[in-house]
Amino acid sequence: MQILSFVILFPVGILLGIWYTSMLVLPLFYGVPMAFLGFVRKKYKFKAIAAYLVAPAFWTAFFILAFFLLAYFWESGFNYLSNSAAFNLGHILGSIILILNVLFNRKTKEDMRADFEEFIVPYKI
Fold this sequence. Notes:
Blueprint: H1 2-40, H2 47-73, H3 75-82, H4 85-104, H5 106-120
């Protein structure tokens, strides 16, 4: 049963780690500094910075609510998930994979730059 649990929870942890990191870390550590730099250089409005903070705030609130509801309505499931080495290892590994991909993959950097330029259009001065 432990092997089956590992086989299921490890990939779920990886996917959740990639997803959460892309929704939280990338906007905070790429979008916000770029928008702030553009604001200081008078290229973008201040709203650009606030717009990049909306997604991380939303996803953080969503996950806090989801885990609170899980802990409230299904305490044993929450405890199992929070103590699961497979899930936690998968989550950490997924986050590391995404961060390394962003740091060392040229195509990913180009895609992020293009996404930033597309997102920031309404906030240009």
